[in-house]
Amino acid sequence: MTIETVPNRITVLAGIACESDSTETVPLTEERSFGFWQQDIPEPYAALEPQEIIERIRVARQRLGARCIVLGHHYQREDIIQFADFKGDSFKLARWAAEHTEAEFIVFCGVHFMAEAADILSAPHQQVVLPNMAAGCSMADMADPEDVYACWEELEEAGIAQETTPVTYMNSAASLKAFVGKHGGVVCTSSNAAKVMEWAFAQKRRILFFPDQHLGRNTGIKMGIPRDEMPLWNYRKPYGSLGGMSEAELEHGRVLLWQGHCSVHQRFTVDQIAEAHERGAQVVVHPECRAEVVEAADCDGSTEFIVRAVTDSPPGSAWGIGTEINLVSRLAKENPDKTVFCLDPVVCPCSTMYRVHPAYLCWVIESLADGQVVNQIVVPDEDKRWAKVALDRMLEIN
Ligand code: 13P
Ligand code: SF4
Question: Nearest residue CA, atom 5 of ligand 2?
Answer without folding.
Answer: 350
